Amino acid sequence: MTENLISVVDDDESVRRTTTLLIESFGFPAAAFESAELFLRSGHLHDTSCLVLDVQMPGMNGLQLQSHLAAAGCGIPIVFISGYESKDFRQRAVQAGAAAFLGKPFSDEQLLQTIRSALRFSHRDDSLGQIEE
Amino acid sequence: MDVQYEQDAGEIKRLQRCINDLVCLLALPALWSGGDISQVLDTLLNTLMRMLRLDLVSVRLNLSVVETPIEIVRVAQSFGPMPPAHEICEALNHSLGDNSPKWPPLLRNLMGDGEVSMVPLPLGLQGELGVIIAAAQRAGFPQQTEALLLNVAASQACIGLQEARLRSQQKCIADELDRRVARRTAELTAANAELQLQVGLLQRLPVSAWTLKPDGTPDFVNRVWLEYSGQTLDFVRSRPDAWISAVHPEDRETASRSFWEGVRSGQGFAMETRFLRARDGTYRWHLNQAVVLRDAEGRVLKFVGTTTDIDDQKRAKEKLRRSEAFLAEGQRLGQIGSYCWRPATDEITWSAELYRIYELEIGMPVTLELIRSRVHPDDVTLIEKMKLVDQAREGSHDFEWRYRLLMPDQSIKYMHAVAHSTRDQNGQSEYMASVQDVTARRLAEEARDKAQSELASVARVMSLGALTASIAHEVNQPLSGIITNASTCLRMLGADPPQVEGARETARRTIRDGNRMSEVIARLRALFSKKEPTTESVNLNDAVLEVIALSILELQKNRVVLCPELADDLPLITGDRVQLQQVILNLLRNGSDAMCTVEDRPRQLVIRTERDNGDRVRLTVQDAGIGFDPQAADRLFDAFYTTKCDGMGIGLSVSRSIIERHHGRLWATLNEGPGAAFSFSIPRTPAGLAHADGIRNIQAPAVTGSAAA
Question: Where are the domains of chain B?
Fold first, then answer.
């Protein structure tokens, strides 16, 4: 199991690759997926510490993946990135428990801080779990 | 005494008888009166036989030297059998001889049973008429009285025969005269019949015929005229211009002038006048023509003329003139001129209205220089176009042509010509064109286009929110990439040790995203800029791919599965790329919108390009959406017709106007299954596009997503 694996789901190859490179430059391991369906079938569902997720995607979109994971009891913190500055999407994403909602373009620092806080949230969950154990 | 007395009494009796016989002979001419020669001779011979108790009497008559003499012989029955008459005559002639003066007063001859005394009586002074021979057997013949009676009878016969001969000659002459008169009469009768026929013809000709004396007085007028005018021959002959009372009052002055000029100059005349028809009191147009007849010295003998009813022709001509006038008026009202060119003679004919449109003096000769002086220098003149078409000599010679006139005041007139080639009566080719001044229509169209463009702008503003989001996404995507890549690059270079290879890749990605963004901006600028539409060669497939690139995200957002089916062998078309892309974009968005409520089937949207009939290219966008009401199919393309609560109904009407300006058409059909298909078909090279009235002047209405049917 990879520690602090960051999974990127975006249908745009360029965005996917660029985002992955940036995350790796932060020092985190990263995995890239073209669609929500591919991510769900990848087997990385349980070792992903943070999910960087695009809103607009063919097939299952970001919000649908979020509700699907929630319904499955999977509490991976999700950082949404979106080209559409939509209050509606942002509101729905945050209400559904998203760790962050980043509108494009965003700076590397913004992403790094967002991922770090998401990971802390994730680790706190983990530590809580460990404490309970 | 008694003997003496008896002798005296016998003498007296003889004398009395002689006198009676003389009287009888003297009365003979009265008996002969009116008789012919044979009657004269017959009477004479019978009288002499009986009166003188002759035994034989003969006559030979020489009427002329050429005719055979007439010979008659009478013999008493007591004389016994006699030889035939001509033998007796021959014998008598022989005993007398031809020379009458040598004839003896009496000769004796043996004849029959005994001797006879024969007295020859010459007819005429020298016996030239012939001779009478009286003969008797008795002795003492002729007695003195008998000789006297014979001489008197001979002279009476001579008179009677002369008269009879005269009468006979007169009768001959009279007969000849009668014959000649009869022959002449027959000739005259025949000639008269011919003349009657001619006169009858002249009287009944279907024209009025007449002759005038040298002073202009009519001397003959045929029945046709008299029946038409109701005038009498006496009236017409009464004075030279009596006929003018039948002329329409308005025509009298000119008619009189022409008539007298023609008569006085001796040249005759030809004039048209209206004459009153007596039968119904109407005036009808007539043509009056007179030619002159002259004698050998050149003096005027007569004028011969006719008056022909030309009313029907005149009315037909007037009707034709009126319909030509109507046509000219129609041309003037419609500002349509006629243009005719005959290649064989290079002759150009214009209607009056065309001169008016060109602002040239009506009727001036149409030359190439004259035409060139009016047609816009950048434009090809109609006559040049006709010549090009004529030289091509292939296919149809019918065509349309649009060009401009540049008037002396620098104003522009827009001309639209519809030309048609045909053949004249002699089989020569001929180009006929209707040329219309469409300037007013052009101005109206431009105003309408402007209004439409403004409407489209309204639609654009209305959907600006949606559009901004779309643009933001398009721009943000590469912009975000640039920032991310640049940051990544810096971080990789700042690492220890620096990740040079990774930094190089991110730098390349930065450049790539920069280019991508620049493309997006160029596309957006082309789509929404105000720049004039252009005519260029367009690869419709490329245009479709660009539109797909722009709209794919929005389509994906709406879960639309786009299936491009682009033909490999699609020819290039001539047109305005951006305008056509606006139409395509509009069709894609309409298709996408039509499927937004569809959940039970794939939201499949097919965009297909293909070759169409007649060197055309067709594009179809087929959706699986809600379709449309077939009854509303005609209204789909009307401005403001929309089935969407948030639409304005501009998109399809503008799309259609763009396609029509590319000389194509845009239509909608319902699928066999769910949904509808919208297609347009445009010619590869629209006629007239390369010219002044091409789409260079078309406004560029924008088409936007939500503003569609």
Answer: 10-171, 207-309, 331-437, 464-697
Chain A contact for B605, CB < 8 A?
A: no
Sorted by sequence, the CB contacts under 8 Å of residue A44 that are 6+ apart come out as A5, A7, A31
| Chain A residues whose beta carbon lies within 8 Å of the beta carbon of residue B491 | 22, 25-26, 108
Q: B644 vs chain A: nearest CA distance in angstroms?
A: 23
> Which residues on A lie below 8 Å from B487 (Cβ)?
22, 25, 107-108
- The CATH number that domain A5-132 falls under is 3.40.50.2300
> What b/e string do you get for B367-399 counting C-beta neighbours within 10 Å, with b at 16 or more?
eeeebeebbbeebebbbbbbbebeeeeeeebeb
Using the Cβ of A104 and the Cβ atoms of chain B, whether some distance falls under 8 Å is answered with yes
List the CATH code of the domain at B10-171: 3.30.450.40
ipTM: 0.76
User: Which residues lie across from A78 on neighbouring strands?
Assistant: A51
CATH superfamily, region B464-697: Histidine kinase-like ATPase, C-terminal domain (3.30.565.10)
Q: What is the CATH number of domain B207-309?
A: 3.30.450.20
Identify the DSSP state of B375: B
Say whether B207-309 and B10-171 share the same fold: yes
- Across the 709 residues of chain B, what is the mean pLDDT of every consecutive 10-residue run? 76 85 83 79 86 86 74 78 71 71 75 78 79 85 85 84 81 88 90 84 81 90 88 88 89 92 91 91 91 88 90 86 76 79 86 88 87 88 85 73 90 88 77 87 77 57 54 75 89 89 90 84 63 73 86 81 90 85 85 85 92 90 87 63 44 77 87 91 68 38 36
